[in-house]
Structure formats: C-alpha cells, structure tokens
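Continuing the series of single-chain predictions for the mutant panel. This is the parent chain; the variants come on the following pages.
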Amino acid sequence: MNNLTAAAAVGQDVSKSLRINSQASIFTAELVALNLSLDIIRRSKHKKFAIFSDSLSSLLAINNRHFETGYVQKFITDYSQLSHSGKTIILIWIPSHIGIEVMSLLMRLPNQPLCQL
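Parent structure:
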C-alpha cells in the first residue's frame, strides 16, 4: 500500500488539494491545508471568511508565531497580506472526534462566504 500524504481545503464553490511528501507529518499536512485555504480566499471576490480546522496544533503554531516552521511563516505572511487588502479572516478550531456535527454548526452561521477545512 502506498503511503501518500495530501492536504485539502474546501470553499463554498471551490476546492484545492495537493499531494505532499509521503514523509510529511500530519502537522505539516494540516498547515499545508490552511495555506491552501488562503489561496482560495486570495482568489475570491468576497471580503469575509471563516477557516474551520480541527488541527489545534497548527492553529496554536500560527497563533504563537512559530516562524521556524516554514508553513507557519507562509501562512502568517499571506494572512497579513490578505488582511491588508481588506479581507477579514477568522480561524475557528473545531474539536474532532467528539460528536460535533460540522454541518449543523455551519447552518447556524450568518450567510457569508466560508472557507471550510
């Protein structure tokens, strides 16, 4: 069996995926997915976005500005550029494997563009 590692981001009407090095950690794959979400946002005409992720470690690395990780550095740089261009992006942690129904949560949010991971 091939050990393939990939990352993906899904938006309202677009998705992006990328196969990455098979030796990459789950942490790396999660950071790549977060960066893919910013690529979706960059190409969108909308101004407000929410990024949902179940990767607490990735979100904490971004929040704590762990610049020694290249994907964290890229995310922060791109996030800053998008913010300066007038886009509002919030990051939301969704705990995984504890019975939360993501679609139920999404249905309760105001009708605005979402970038869901």
